[in-house]
Amino acid sequence: MKTNFVRQTVLPVLAAFIWGTAFVAQSLGAELLPPFAFNAARSAVAFVFLLAVCLVLRAVRRGRGRPASSTVSRGQLALGGLCCGAALTVATNLQQKGLETTASGKAGFITALYIIIVPVLGLLLKKKAPKTVWLGVVLALAGLYCLCVTDSFTSVTAGDLYVLLGSLCFAVHILLIDHFTRKVDGVELSCAQFLVAALFSAVGMLLTEQPTLTGLTAGLGLILYVGVLSSGVAYTLQIVAQKGSNPTVVSLLLSLESVFAVLAGAAVLHDRMSGREYLGCLLMLAAVVLAQLPDRKTTAPADAA
Question: Which of the 8 DSSP states describes residue 226?
Fold first, then answer.
């Protein structure tokens, strides 16, 4: 019982904490390095870390007389790594670009919209969403308006728009992950996608940016934190937590990422938000929670009155 509690409750909350606090590291990193350079470095670190994890897991499985990997097709692993890595590259670089001008707490809440966007995009795959999700969409849009629209109520900042587009790409990335993890090992897929993300970001860096060695050296600690903990450890925690667990409960706990982002931004960066922006945060958090609630029609007993 205690083991299940740790795996199903403590691990996803810890993952959410790491992801939330990573927004602070990314905000600080945005002051030192341009987006492609920062993400090329963090993705390279994540790849090396996850490669080591894969090797350790393979050795442990072999020692227990089990198959070294759950991946059936190496071709599917390569395709999954390419597709997921491409989506992750676009998503993280849009988000990092937005963090140059958007507060980390605000960015955390805007990014949380992916939990709403995923079921909406699911309609394209002929997956119906319950009514609670659509109510969540309405709340999320209202919250986003309060959070991102300037005092004139006539425009959205460029940074907010970058983060919002990044959230859309994260939603696509989640759907791709859901598709490919049915065929390949989740940790191996993560390792492959970060290799692709590192290569794609490096190309973008060479074509459009001129990072400095001083900036890279100064941001090394931030890169290691985001690369190892946010990209490597937190993703692994999510996989372990979701195995055999109620996905609704785990997803709800993971959505606390946005709350930790605001708290970390206030504690470390001394970010201050207006009352209207805090109202937007509350509305968006309510939307995220509402979207995770099970549909009564699908959970009620078949013979219910």
Answer: I
